[in-house]
Design a protein that fits this description.
Radius of gyration: 25 Å
Largest sheet: 8 strands, parallel
Shape: globular
Distance between the termini: 68 Å
Low-confidence stretches: none
CATH topology of the largest domain: TIM Barrel
Strand content: 5-15%
CATH architecture of the largest domain: Alpha-Beta Barrel
CATH class of the largest domain: Alpha Beta
Bound molecules: NADP nicotinamide-adenine-dinucleotide phosphate
Helix content: 40-55%
Amino acid sequence: MKLIIREKKKTIYIFILIVLIAGIGIYLGLKGKEQENIVNDNIINKLEQENNIAKFNFETKTVKLNSGYEMPLNGLGTYSLTGDTCYNAVSSALKSGVRLIDTAYMYGNEEEIGKAIRDSGIPREEIFVITKIYPSQFDKTKEAIELALKKLDIEYIDMMLLHHPGEGDVEAYKAMEKYVKSGKIRSLGLSNWYVEELNDFLPKINIIPALVQNEIHPYYQENDVIPFIQNLGIVVQGWYPFGGRGHTSELLNNETITRIANNHNVSSAQVILRWNLQKGVVVIPGSSNPDHIKENMNIYGFELNENEMQEINSLDRNEKHDWY
Ligand SMILES: NC(=O)c1ccc[n+]([C@@H]2O[C@H](COP(=O)([O-])OP(=O)(O)OC[C@H]3O[C@@H](n4cnc5c(N)ncnc54)[C@H](OP(=O)(O)O)[C@@H]3O)[C@@H](O)[C@H]2O)c1
């Protein structure tokens, strides 16, 4: 009998001990989370208080990044352009005065772009090249960076982005940070990072990104995300300015946009690009057509008034044209 009572007591003690340990564990876990949130708030608050919103210079057509480098306000996007089409588009853009080229490992065209830049005879310092590494490369970032440097073959990369959030992105970013120290990459950035992702990511890295590149067009405006990023002193760049292939005619023929374009004697494409610039968003329209490339450069000779800006703002449908 005594033995049974002793065994029962032992079981109760063990149970109490387990509950106590679990309680302490949960308490410490919550404390840790609280601490993490404080760190999160600190970095975001600190950046917001510094109030280093990058100003667009419409004279030089550049913006000074938080990395200290100047980046052009308009460029050429090269998604889906490969081979001779890509080489010719980049050559034509450089001849027309475009000085910002956006590429990515995923586009499979870094070699063509590097060759067009080398063949252009334009001093390397005058051209700004952005490339990206893909989540499938995050577990071997050093090799991915070396591969991009080799394919582009233009001495250094002006800006490298992580193409999407993904497993191992913090470590991948830290690997890119090392290349900034060595001078092989000049500035860093992120693509497809929104408010929640930035809140989570920024406290874990050392070099604040200079740029965030996200989907932005009149039907998907990100009006909550853009000011959040800009207030951190990070420049915003928009992809799919015309909605992306398959959606361009709907946007370019939008009644409001064509009416505003007629008012200024410019094209719908130019109105959309100008609307972006006036919102503080850098543009990288894609094109393989030399006339379109020239047209897309020519966005500094007119200004949209407050009313016209509001009219385009009111076209927002929160309609994303791609999954990320
Ligand atoms: N970070 C990311 O995840 C991500 C995702 C997508 C794209 N991007 C980047 O963003 C860039 C822009 O996106 P995108 O090229 O896919 O789509 P986009 O710029 O929205 O649209 C490109 C389409 O617009 C046409 N176009 C260009 N200028 C025009 C003009 N002045 N008048 C009429 N049509 C015109 C082009 O045709 P023509 O060739 O006939 O001119 C092409 O079919 C990409 O090239 C890429 O660099 C990044």
